[in-house]
């Protein structure tokens, strides 16, 4: 990896550090490395001490992808929910279909907004894993059992000005992880905003277990029940169709057959992105073959 490449990665890291108002040691926690490793990353004279594998991991964390973030109606709606939650320390829940653009909008808001912390969940997380990930994105590192780690999160956030936590793919979390989130919510009520997002399964699960009076779920429902709706993905609908046509034009997809294929077969926004990228590759190969034929 060239030094120019490393400098681009470092510039992205430094921009994140400034946006989030973090110290170098806090950035080490965010990056998941030691303070000594962070010192080497930030000091070009010590770059020989940093492996290419670490540079690649940092690039995936901080360097923006080539795909443009389009401000669809859902994108604007989710950004508005995040801003409202942060300004008024509200709890909001977005339980909507996969591919609606939740992750893109939540990540974008967190990257652009001070004291906004994006946390991506997964099925394998224990409460301690979840607490550690929340701490990591905030730039702190307090070890202990899950409860002590959660209390450290609360202690840190009460010192921030209008913080907001964005929990993505919360439908993947276990009951114990949801209970830990409830504990954090309770201790930060009116002092921190929360946006909890997931597929339709999240709302169905909460409502089902609340009806069955499963331990803790009626309380979770009270905290999560401020549901926010998104526009359903239907390429036949004028607004959605207009967004798809705009993306195709912007990405150089102008062939009627290709556009018709996308409108007919896309099931959600991520399908649109993948189909556009595939057509871009196909068109590039076709253009190359035509040039070679002419040259021959």
UniProtKB/TrEMBL annotation:
<dbReference type="InterPro" id="IPR027417">
    <property type="entry name" value="P-loop_NTPase"/>
</dbReference>
<feature type="domain" description="ORC1/DEAH AAA+ ATPase">
    <location>
        <begin position="98"/>
        <end position="205"/>
    </location>
</feature>
<dbReference type="InterPro" id="IPR049945">
    <property type="entry name" value="AAA_22"/>
</dbReference>
<dbReference type="InterPro" id="IPR052026">
    <property type="entry name" value="ExeA_AAA_ATPase_DNA-bind"/>
</dbReference>
<protein>
    <recommendedName>
        <fullName>ORC1/DEAH AAA+ ATPase domain-containing protein</fullName>
    </recommendedName>
</protein>
<dbReference type="GO" id="GO:0016887">
    <property type="term" value="F:ATP hydrolysis activity"/>
</dbReference>
<dbReference type="Pfam" id="PF13401">
    <property type="entry name" value="AAA_22"/>
</dbReference>
């Amino acid at each position: 990896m060239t030094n120019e490449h490393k400098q681009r990665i470092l510039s992205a890291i430094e921009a994140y550090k400034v946006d989030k108002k973090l110290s170098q040691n806090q950035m080490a926690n965010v990056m998941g490395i030691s303070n000594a490793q962070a010192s080497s990353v930030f000091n070009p004279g010590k770059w020989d001490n940093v492996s290419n594998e670490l540079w690649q991991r940092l690039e995936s964390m901080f360097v923006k992808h080539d795909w443009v973030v389009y401000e669809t109606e859902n994108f604007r709606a989710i950004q508005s929910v995040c801003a409202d939650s942060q300004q008024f320390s509200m709890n909001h829940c977005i339980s909507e279909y996969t591919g609606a653009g939740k992750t893109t909008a939540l990540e974008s808001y967190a990257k652009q907004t001070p004291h906004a912390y994006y946390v991506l969940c997964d099925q394998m997380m224990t409460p301690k894993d979840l607490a550690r990930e929340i701490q990591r994105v905030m730039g702190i590192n307090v070890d202990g059992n899950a409860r002590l780690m959660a209390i450290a999160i609360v202690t840190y956030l009460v010192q921030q000005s209008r913080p907001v936590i964005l929990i993505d793919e919360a439908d993947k979390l276990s009951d114990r992880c949801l209970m830990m989130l409830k504990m954090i919510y309770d201790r930060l009520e009116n002092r921190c905003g929360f946006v909890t997002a997931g597929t339709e399964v999240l709302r169905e699960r909460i409502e089902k277990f609340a009806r069955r009076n499963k331990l803790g779920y009626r309380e979770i429902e009270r905290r999560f029940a401020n549901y926010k709706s998104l526009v359903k993905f239907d390429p036949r609908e004028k607004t959605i169709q207009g967004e798809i046509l705009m993306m195709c034009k912007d990405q150089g997809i102008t062939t009627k057959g290709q556009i018709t294929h996308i409108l007919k077969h896309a099931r959600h926004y991520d399908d649109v992105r993948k189909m556009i990228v595939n057509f871009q590759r196909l068109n590039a190969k076709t253009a190359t073959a035509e040039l070679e034929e002419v040259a021959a």
